[in-house]
Amino acid sequence: MSLKSERRGIHVDQSELLCKKGCGYYGNPAWQGFCSKCWREEYHKARQKQIQEDWELAERLQREEEEAFASSQSSQGAQSLTFSKFEEKKTNEKTRKVTTVKKFFSASSRVGSKKAEIQEAKAPSPSINRQTSIETDRVSKEFIDFLKTFHKTGQEIYKQTKMFLEAMHYKRDLSIEEQSECTQDFYQNVAERMQTRGKVPPERVEKIMDQIEKYIMTRLYKYVFCPETTDDEKKDLAIQKRIRALHWVTPQMLCVPVNEEISEVSDMVVKAITDIIEMDSKRVPRDKLACITKCSKHIFNAIKITKNEPASADDFLPTLIYIVLKGNPPRLQSNIQYITRFCNPSRLMTGEDGYYFTNLCCAVAFIEKLDAQSLNLSQEDFDRYMSGQTSPRKQESENWSPDACLGVKQMYKNLDLLSQLNERQERIMSEAKKLEKDLIEWTDGIAKEGTTNFWCSILE
C-alpha cells in the first residue's frame, strides 16, 4: 500500500485498503495486499505447485537411482543374493515403521503424551500456570454453557472443536504458517457446516465462531503467539527502537487535527494510548481487535471535539500514527501477526474491526518507512532530529497560548530538558574522546622522544 505525504497531511486512498484482487474485502500487508480469502487461494495454488514440483523431482531421482542400480549389476548370483537381503531388510523396516505409527496413534500413547504435556506445562512458574488454568477453566465453562442452547448442533460443534485441539497438539512441530492454515481451514469448515447442514442463520454463525475462536485460542495462545521459530520478536524490537528514535515527531508535522490543550481531547488521547497498549494483555485475537477498535473510536471522538465536525479518513490515519508513536505499544508486530494468523477471517475482511486493523497495519508501515519528505522536512533537519542534536519542540514551546494546559506545557518542558541533557552528554563524550586521543598522542610523542635521546647519548 502506497502512503502519500502531502502538505495537507498524510493521505491514503481508501481503495488501497481493499484487496488488490478486487473482491471488495479489506486487504492486509501481511497477506501481500490480498484479503484473507484471496490470500488463502493464492497460498493453496503456490503450495500445490510446490508439491507437484517436489513430487516430480522425487520421481526423477528415484528413476535415476533405479537405473544406476540396474546398470551396476555385474555378478547375477551375488547380486541376486544381495538384492534378496535388501528386500528382506526393506520389509522388516517397513513393518517396524507401521508398528511404530500404530503405537503412536494408540489410546495408551495418546494418554502418555498428554501426561507428558501436563508435566511439561508444570515446569515453568506455578503461579503463571495456575492463573492460566483458572482462565482456561472459566472459558471452557462459558463455551459449554453457550453451546447448550444449540442442543444437538452444539454437541457436534464441541466434538469438532475438541478433535481440532487434539490434532493441533500433534502439529506443534509444523511452521507457524502451517498451523495458521490449519486453524483457518477449521474456521471455514465449521462455518460452512453450520450454514449448510445445521441451517444456522449467518448472524448466529458469527456469534458461535467468536466463541469457538475464544475457546481454542485461549488454549493455543502460549504455543502460537510470538513463537521462537519466527522473527516476530526481532521485528518487535526493531519497531520499538524505531518509535523511540522518532520521539521528537510533533502532531503538527503529521498534520494531526487534534488539540490536546482541550482537556476532553487530552483525555481521549490518553484513553486511545491505553487501549492500544492494553492489546498486548489479551489472549484472544478478537479481544485484541476490540482494543484496536476502542482506540480508533477514541481517536475519532478526539478529532470530532477538536474540529466540531465528524472526522474523515484523512484525519484518522495521521492521528493513529501519532498515537502509535506516542504509546509505543509492546510487542506490536507480534500482536499484528497473531491477529493476522489466527483471527476469524471474516472479522478482518469486513466491518469496522477489519477497517481499523487495516489502518493500524498502514500506520506501522508508514512509521517503518518514515523519512524527511514524509514530514515535509529538509534532510538536514531530519538527520539532526534523529541524531538528537536538537529538538523541534524548542521552537514550539515559545509559542504557547496563555490558556494552554499546564500538564502539556510541563511535559514539553521536560522533553526539552531531556534533549538538552542528551546534547550536553554527547558534547562531553566527544570532548572526552578528543582528550583521550590527545593524551595517547602526547604519550607516544614523549616515549618516542625519550627513545631518540637514549640512542643519541649512546652514539656520542
Automatic annotation (TrEMBL):
Record key words, sorted: Acetylation, Cytoplasm, Endocytosis, Endosome, Metal-binding, Phosphoprotein, Protein transport, Transport, Ubl conjugation, Ubl conjugation pathway, Zinc, Zinc-finger
Q: Which Pfam families match?
A: DUF5601 (PF18151), VPS9 (PF02204), zf-A20 (PF01754)
| Subcellular location per the Swiss-Prot or TrEMBL entry | Cytoplasm; Early endosome; Recycling endosome
Annotated SMART domains: VPS9, ZnF_A20
Residues annotated as domain VPS9: 233-376
Task: Quote the biased-composition stretches of kind Low complexity, using this chain's numbering.
Answer: 69-84
Q: Which residue intervals make up region (Disordered)?
A: 66-85
The protein's superkingdom reads Eukaryota
What GO terms in the biological process aspect are recorded for it?
Answer: endocytosis; protein transport
Q: Which residues form the A20-type domain?
A: 13-47
Is the keyword Transport in the record? yes
Q: What is its main location?
A: cytoplasm
Its protein name is: Rab5 GDP/GTP exchange factor
Organism listed in the record: Canis lupus familiaris
What would be the name of the gene that encodes this protein?
A: RABGEF1
